[in-house]
């Protein structure tokens, strides 16, 4: 079980990760002239050198050999890398085509997808409030499907891919830096192959749009590394319920950016769908806080009872000794035997 210090550290990492992710659309907007596939490939390629530099600075190489000896964990790392690659690609594409609000919706419904994973994969039982939240969320998706004229596949895919990534990260049990490095190693070769293909066909933009553009693509490794490392560090220190609460920060910031910075449209039907999702999240938050408070009260009660029992066990021997002493003091002293009578003869 994580200590309070670990939980505080995890909260700081979580706030930093989701805050940075929330403002990331501003960065990808600077690269809108480049095809999203190329941006994604550069993001993957430059992530590995960034990871190597950080590992060298921190001298954190000892985790590699044990990981290589565990094929199941390696497979989970590959799954995590695939899930986050899908998430990255769709998110970059959504910024380039002006669908940041729809992306924010995907991250808003992510907690509902995590709950569905718990039921379907982990056989968890939902509390009534959680069932209500899932029902409201499903209604929101239906309303938005009518509003868009189609199922909001972008939002749903973003939610599914990131929920999968979080679930797998919980199973891999690698810290933020180590997990990011392992995933970057998996992504590097296919991404580099794609960039080589673009260069040989003359379709790449790394060397054709100036130094500033090239630097923005190269820095994408650092931009990717920092929040992802923070997230990984938070995921191994905090329960999934806390991670679920923290992740509201990123889509809230994205929503503000889409509405105010990128001037995306919000017709009444879309407002209705978003409001329903927010109601579902409020129900989830209320239920999580209530459940946590009850659990803490039960722990305090159990601890108090255990302390009382321990105190009673400590005082019982002393009380028994005192009672024995009182009993011995109250008992009459044994009389001395009478001297033998003298003979009169």
Automatic annotation (TrEMBL):
GO terms for cellular component: plasma membrane. Keywords: Cell membrane, Membrane, Transmembrane, Transmembrane helix, Transport. It is a multi-pass membrane protein. Residues 334-345 have a biased composition (Pro residues). Residues 9-145, 154-285 form the EamA domain. Its main location: membrane. Signal peptide: none annotated. InterPro entries: EamA_dom (IPR000620), EmrE-like (IPR037185), RarD (IPR004626). Pfam families: EamA. It is found in: Cell membrane. Residues 306-333 have a biased composition (Low complexity). Residues 306-345 are annotated as: Disordered. The chain crosses the membrane at residues 12-31, 43-62, 74-93, 105-122, 129-147, 153-168, 180-200, 212-231, 238-259, 271-289. Belongs to the EamA transporter family. NCBIfam families: rarD (TIGR00688). PANTHER family: ACYL-MALONYL CONDENSING ENZYME-RELATED, SOLUTE CARRIER FAMILY 35 MEMBER G2-RELATED. This is Protein rarD.
